[in-house]
Amino acid sequence: MSKSFFIPVVLVILVMFVPGKLKATGLAADAIYINGEKWDLYAWPINEQYSGRLQDFLKEREGTAVTKCTMANPFGYNCTWEIRDGKMYLKEVVVEMYDTVAREEFTVVYPADSLKGVFRESCTRKGICADWVSGDLIAGKGKLVAYAHMGFNRTAEHQVHLKVEKGKVVESSLRRYRKTGGIEKIRAVTYTTLKRNFCEAP
C-alpha cells in the first residue's frame, strides 16, 4: 500500500470512528452523469491501485499551489463519472488547490484524456472504463429527506440505484424517497420505484 493512499484512508477512519477526539463528517460526493443528467454519487469508486497513482500524478504537478485536503475530502479531489453505452466511464478529476504564496484557492480540472497514464490498464477506445468497479452504487438528486453527518449516510428525494459488474451497469432503478416520521433518521424513509432499467441501454 502506497504512503500517498494510506494517509488519507487513516484520516477518514479517524474522522468517522474516533469518539471525542474528532467529530464525524459527511463526505463530499463524486458526480455522475446518467442519461445526460448530473447526479451526486455517494461513493468514491477509485480503488487503491489507482488512488495511489493519482495522488502521485497530482503531487508531481504541485508547486507553490498544493492540493487542498479537508475532513470532508481528505484526498483533495473528486471525480466525475458518466454512464455511457451501458458502462461507467471516468470523465474528469476535479482538484481543489491552494496557492501558498498568493493565498488563494482555485480549482483544476483534469479531463480523462490527460489521465491515461494513471489509468492505463482501463483505457479503451471510448475512454477510461471503470472496469475495476463492481457492486451497488447510489446516486442522488434533489432535497435530502434523511442525513447523518458521517460518510455517505444520506438519502435524497430522488435516487438511482445501480448494480455494476466490472464497469458494466447490469441493473438500474429510479426511486423517489420520502420521510416516514418526524425524526430525521437514515432508515426512517420509504420509497417508490418510478422506473426500472433507468439507464440508457447500450
Question: Can you summarize this structure?
Answer:
The protein has 202 residues and is mainly β. The chain is built from two helices and twelve strands, in the order H-E-E-H-E-E-E-E-E-E-E-E-E-E. It has helices at residues 3-17, 48-60, and strands spanning 30-34, 37-41, 65-67, 77-84, 87-99, 104-111, 123-124, 127-129, 135-147, 154-165, 168-179, 189-196.
Describe the protein's topology.
Elements lengths: L2 H15 L12 E5 L2 E5 L6 H13 L4 E3 L9 E8 L2 E13 L4 E8 L11 E2 L2 E3 L5 E13 L6 E12 L2 E12 L9 E8 L6
Morphology call: globular
Distance between the termini: 36 Å
Strand/helix succession: HEEHEEEEEEEEEE
Q: Main sheet, how many strands, which sense, barrel?
A: 12 strands, mixed
Q: Helical percent range?
A: 10-25%
- Strand proportion, as a percent range, falls in over 45%
Structural class based on helices, strands and sheet pairing: mainly beta
How many domain units?
1
Q: Rounded to an integer, what's the Rg over CA atoms?
A: 18 Å
How many strand units?
Answer: 12
Mean pLDDT: 87
